[in-house]
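Progress report, Aim 2. The chain analyzed during this reporting quarter is listed below.
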Amino acid sequence: MPRGDKSSYTGKQKRQAEHIEESYEHRGVSEGEAERRAWATVNKETGGGKKSGSGRGKPENHAPSRKGGKLGGQAAASRPATARSASAKKAAATRKRKSASG
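Predicted structure tokens for the chain:
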């Protein structure tokens, strides 16, 4: 079986990968990179291709799918509250100024 052959994957795994890929593309990731990430996520969750054979099933681990959203916001969280507050006040002032002139 050549590398990249998806014949050993179930229909569910293929649908999962397609859905994850669409999500990445929606967020602005290139088509090739989105496909690569999607299959990496499916492999991490399900342990690779799962076609046929009694007793081959292993429980799915959904942590890789949840992980992505948790990574966001780390930069802001590491800044002190005073710095975040100052940024928020500055942004609010800018929005107020722009809405008054427009």
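Residues 9 and 50 are 6 Å apart (CA to CA). The chain has two domains: 8-50+62-71, 73-102. These observations will guide the mutagenesis work planned for the next reporting period.
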